[in-house]
């Protein structure tokens, strides 16, 4: 490879020597012409040193040539000397400096219109990456070099580019391309009868034959390559690679003895190469010292030039300063007077604006407080009846006598669960905007989830005479792990949007697998409709809060928050929503989400022994009759005895006169609320577990509830399994369960 690099440099030098006499002849001064001739002679000597392998001397000589060229104003030759330094560093395998000076030369050539210089620069950078075996990086440079070399009609240079392209494509596994470029390279090199590349060509041909499953022909090529190196009487990386490829090919043919002999020759030549590398390392160290010294001198010279330039600039500035000062002083007095008058007006205006700002700030703070209070009130008022709906639906689902209504009850519970989640998210849009929404991952069945969503829209579908079609790719695992509620909210909002804006049409819910691994699958969801469509100019606005597309055909009702929630929920999952739509041709919303793969059947087996709850006496403190019924049904279903207290005062009296194992305490009650009642209870009973039941945001109340003396919190409406776990943890006095309770409470 390095021998081939020297060939490229030789071709480059021939072109260089042809150009420079013209450049020199343009100078009129005889002394400059003589100096340029001397510079050319020095660069020819540098080339000789390069071919002799004296790379440290090449670098020293190039540093001298750069200084020489810059002194006589020959920038072109100064950059060419940097190119020579880059070549020397490449041979020394100092790729960092090779790139530094090579790319410096490439930047210079791009400013010219000379095909030779640009082809030389591209060839060098490509060869440098090829030496580093960075084939993808080398390819674009040879691609850029090829047309430039073709314009110059330089057969050898073009053939070498073909050779390099063949080598790159072979290493990338593109054998057909590699073979085509090899044929072009071979044709050109044969035409110019250039025998110095015979070894490299035979090696590459052997590797091509091996890649094309022709090992016998490959062996013939390797033998010819070895013979050509003997005739040429030199050893380099090419011969090392020939023996390595030869040995591997023999080994693949089970000719182990011959493969071993070739391997021994490979090891022998590699040892010689290792000794040469030690010498190159010494040369590199010397070169590094010279380059460092050169950089320091160049930096010093640059600083001196900068200092002289700055001094001249300061002198000129002082002159202009004194002239300008006289003019400015006159203008200053005029401006000062006008400024004084303007400042008075500005001060008065700022006072007025400041008062307006303070007033607006106060109004905004009052509005924020009112909004917060409104959200808290709405949250409680909506969650309280939902607690009854979800609780009763759950209890009815567990009633075996209602087995024929299981599907309807599931749909009822799903809709109530969705409504609860929707309320929570609408009320917590501020949380979405501040990225505080937490992801809750559970296992679920994708098909059942989508079917539940479809079922919840049966009434709306009948109203608009629409049909929903579901398509789930067969290769998607049915049981997934992810945020089921979040996915259902996104799909419900998108399907609901489609149902509202489609009349007598079709709606499609599609789930397609994007990628899959052992434990994760990425799914693309799409919701398509044949509805009114969305104009391009409004496609961005519909994701804003309280925005809807106007429809002339129907009166669409809604908050305008559905697509806003979708967008924010996806952003919270590091995903985006995409939209394709045209007026009258419907709309397609799509997004991509990753999910875990749940490999066990969806059968939940509790680790808790709920038989231990039988016989426990539970006091339920709640002022809402429906809530009392729901809680009582669940408690008594698992064998516990339930006593109801309609207020805090009644609860205190019952606890003073009766023995209970646990208290379920509602927070919001008329008269004494749950926290006040708990404080009263703790005065005479410090041990009984008290669990808070609240429909208010838990995060808002957690600190106050804990301070009142309660042991744990259950948010309404609650999941039955979680409800029982918390009761179990607070009733059973075991170390493990106590730790779980403490963890939950905190």
From TrEMBL:
<feature type="domain" description="Histidine kinase">
    <location>
        <begin position="377"/>
        <end position="597"/>
    </location>
</feature>
<keyword id="KW-1133">Transmembrane helix</keyword>
<keyword id="KW-0802">TPR repeat</keyword>
<dbReference type="InterPro" id="IPR011006">
    <property type="entry name" value="CheY-like_superfamily"/>
</dbReference>
<keyword id="KW-0472">Membrane</keyword>
<keyword id="KW-0547">Nucleotide-binding</keyword>
<dbReference type="InterPro" id="IPR005467">
    <property type="entry name" value="His_kinase_dom"/>
</dbReference>
<feature type="domain" description="Response regulatory">
    <location>
        <begin position="617"/>
        <end position="731"/>
    </location>
</feature>
<dbReference type="Pfam" id="PF13424">
    <property type="entry name" value="TPR_12"/>
</dbReference>
<dbReference type="GO" id="GO:0000155">
    <property type="term" value="F:phosphorelay sensor kinase activity"/>
</dbReference>
<dbReference type="Pfam" id="PF00072">
    <property type="entry name" value="Response_reg"/>
</dbReference>
<feature type="transmembrane region" description="Helical">
    <location>
        <begin position="317"/>
        <end position="337"/>
    </location>
</feature>
<feature type="coiled-coil region">
    <location>
        <begin position="284"/>
        <end position="311"/>
    </location>
</feature>
<dbReference type="InterPro" id="IPR011990">
    <property type="entry name" value="TPR-like_helical_dom_sf"/>
</dbReference>
<feature type="modified residue" description="4-aspartylphosphate">
    <location>
        <position position="666"/>
    </location>
</feature>
<dbReference type="InterPro" id="IPR036890">
    <property type="entry name" value="HATPase_C_sf"/>
</dbReference>
<keyword id="KW-0902">Two-component regulatory system</keyword>
<dbReference type="InterPro" id="IPR003661">
    <property type="entry name" value="HisK_dim/P_dom"/>
</dbReference>
<feature type="signal peptide">
    <location>
        <begin position="1"/>
        <end position="17"/>
    </location>
</feature>
<keyword id="KW-0812">Transmembrane</keyword>
<dbReference type="Pfam" id="PF00512">
    <property type="entry name" value="HisKA"/>
</dbReference>
<feature type="repeat" description="TPR">
    <location>
        <begin position="119"/>
        <end position="152"/>
    </location>
</feature>
<keyword id="KW-0732">Signal</keyword>
<keyword id="KW-0175">Coiled coil</keyword>
<dbReference type="InterPro" id="IPR004358">
    <property type="entry name" value="Sig_transdc_His_kin-like_C"/>
</dbReference>
<dbReference type="InterPro" id="IPR003594">
    <property type="entry name" value="HATPase_dom"/>
</dbReference>
<feature type="coiled-coil region">
    <location>
        <begin position="343"/>
        <end position="370"/>
    </location>
</feature>
<dbReference type="Pfam" id="PF02518">
    <property type="entry name" value="HATPase_c"/>
</dbReference>
<dbReference type="GO" id="GO:0005524">
    <property type="term" value="F:ATP binding"/>
</dbReference>
<dbReference type="InterPro" id="IPR036097">
    <property type="entry name" value="HisK_dim/P_sf"/>
</dbReference>
<keyword id="KW-0067">ATP-binding</keyword>
<keyword id="KW-0597">Phosphoprotein</keyword>
<protein>
    <recommendedName>
        <fullName>histidine kinase</fullName>
        <ecNumber>2.7.13.3</ecNumber>
    </recommendedName>
</protein>
<dbReference type="InterPro" id="IPR019734">
    <property type="entry name" value="TPR_rpt"/>
</dbReference>
<dbReference type="InterPro" id="IPR001789">
    <property type="entry name" value="Sig_transdc_resp-reg_receiver"/>
</dbReference>
């Amino acid at each position: 490879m390095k021998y081939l690099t020297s060939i490229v440099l030789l071709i480059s030098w021939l072109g260089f020597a042809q150009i420079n006499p013209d450049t020199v002849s343009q100078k009129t001064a005889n002394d400059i012409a003589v100096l340029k001739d001397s510079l050319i002679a020095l660069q020819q000597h540098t080339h000789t040193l390069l071919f002799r392998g004296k790379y440290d001397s090449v670098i020293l000589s190039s540093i001298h040539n750069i200084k020489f060229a810059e002194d006589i104003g020959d920038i072109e030759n100064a950059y060419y000397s940097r190119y020579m330094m880059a070549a020397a560093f490449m041979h020394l395998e100092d790729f960092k400096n090779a790139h530094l000076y090579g790319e410096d030369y490439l930047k210079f050539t791009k400013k010219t219109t000379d095909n030779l210089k640009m082809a030389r620069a591209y060839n060098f950078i490509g060869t440098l990456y090829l030496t580093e075996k960075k084939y993808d990086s080398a390819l674009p440079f040879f691609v850029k070099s090829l047309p430039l070399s073709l314009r110059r009609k330089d057969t050898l240079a073009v053939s070498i580019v073909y050779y390099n392209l063949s080598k790159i494509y072979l290493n990338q596994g593109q054998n057909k391309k590699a073979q085509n470029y090899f044929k072009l390279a071979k044709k050109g090199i044969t035409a110019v009868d250039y025998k110095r590349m015979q070894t490299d060509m035979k090696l590459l041909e052997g590797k091509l034959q091996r890649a094309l499953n022709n090992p016998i022909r490959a062996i013939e090529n390797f033998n010819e390559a070895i013979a050509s190196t003997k005739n040429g009487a030199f050893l380099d990386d090419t011969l090392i690679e020939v023996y390595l490829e030869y040995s591997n090919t023999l080994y693949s043919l089970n000719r182990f003895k011959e493969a071993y002999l070739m391997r021994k020759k490979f090891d022998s030549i590699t040892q010689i190469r290792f000794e040469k590398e030690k010498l190159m390392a010494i040369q590199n160290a010397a070169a590094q010292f010279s380059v460092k010294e050169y950089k320091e001198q160049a930096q010093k010279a640059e600083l001196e030039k900068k200092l002289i330039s700055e001094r001249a600039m300061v002198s000129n500035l002082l002159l202009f300063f004194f002239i300008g000062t006289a003019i400015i002083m006159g203008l200053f007095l005029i401006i000062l007077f006008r400024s004084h008058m303007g400042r008075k007006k500005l001060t008065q205006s700022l006072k007025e604006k400041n008062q307006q700002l303070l007033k607006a700030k106060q109004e905004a703070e009052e509005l924020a407080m009112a909004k917060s209070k409104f959200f808290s009130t709405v949250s409680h008022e909506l969650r309280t009846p939902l607690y009854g709906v979800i609780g009763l639906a759950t209890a009815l689902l567990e009633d075996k006598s209602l087995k024929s209504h299981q599907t309807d009850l599931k749909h009822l519970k799903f809709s109530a669960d969705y409504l609860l989640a929707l309320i929570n998210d609408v009320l917590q849009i501020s949380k979405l905007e501040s990225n505080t929404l937490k992801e809750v991952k559970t296992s679920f069945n994708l098909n059942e989830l989508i079917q539940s969503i479809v079922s919840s829209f049966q009434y709306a579908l009948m109203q608009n005479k629409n049909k929903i079609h579901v398509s789930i790719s067969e290769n998607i695992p049915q049981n997934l792990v992810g945020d089921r509620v979040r996915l259902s909210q996104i799909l419900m909002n998108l399907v609901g949007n489609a149902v509202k804006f489609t009349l007598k049409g079709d709606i499609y819910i599609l789930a397609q697998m994007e990628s899959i691994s052992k434990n994760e699958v990425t799914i693309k969801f799409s919701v398509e409709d044949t509805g009114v469509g969305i104009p391009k100019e409004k496609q961005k606005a519909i994701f804003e809060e309280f925005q809807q597309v106007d429809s002339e055909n129907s009166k669409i009702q809604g908050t305008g928050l559905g697509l806003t929630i979708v967008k924010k929920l996806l952003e919270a999952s590091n995903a985006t929503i995409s939209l394709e739509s045209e007026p009258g041709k419907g709309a397609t919303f799509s997004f991509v989400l990753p999910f875990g793969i749940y490999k066990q059947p969806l059968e939940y087996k509790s680790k808790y022994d709920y038989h231990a709850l039988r016989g426990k006496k539970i006091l339920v403190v709640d002022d809402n009759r429906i809530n009392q019924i729901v809680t009582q049904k669940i408690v008594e279903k698992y064998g516990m005895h339930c006593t109801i207290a309609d207020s805090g005062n009644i609860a205190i009296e019952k606890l003073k006169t009766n023995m209970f194992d646990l208290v379920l305490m509602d927070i919001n009650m008329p008269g004494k609320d749950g926290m006040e009642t708990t404080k009263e209870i703790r005065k005479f009973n410090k041990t009984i577990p008290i669990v808070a039941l609240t429909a208010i945001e838990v995060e808002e109340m957690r600190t106050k509830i804990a301070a009142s003396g309660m042991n744990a919190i259950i948010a309404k409406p609650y999941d039955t399994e979680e409800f029982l776990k918390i009761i179990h943890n607070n009733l059973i006095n075991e170390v493990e369960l106590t730790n779980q309770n403490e963890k939950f409470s905190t």
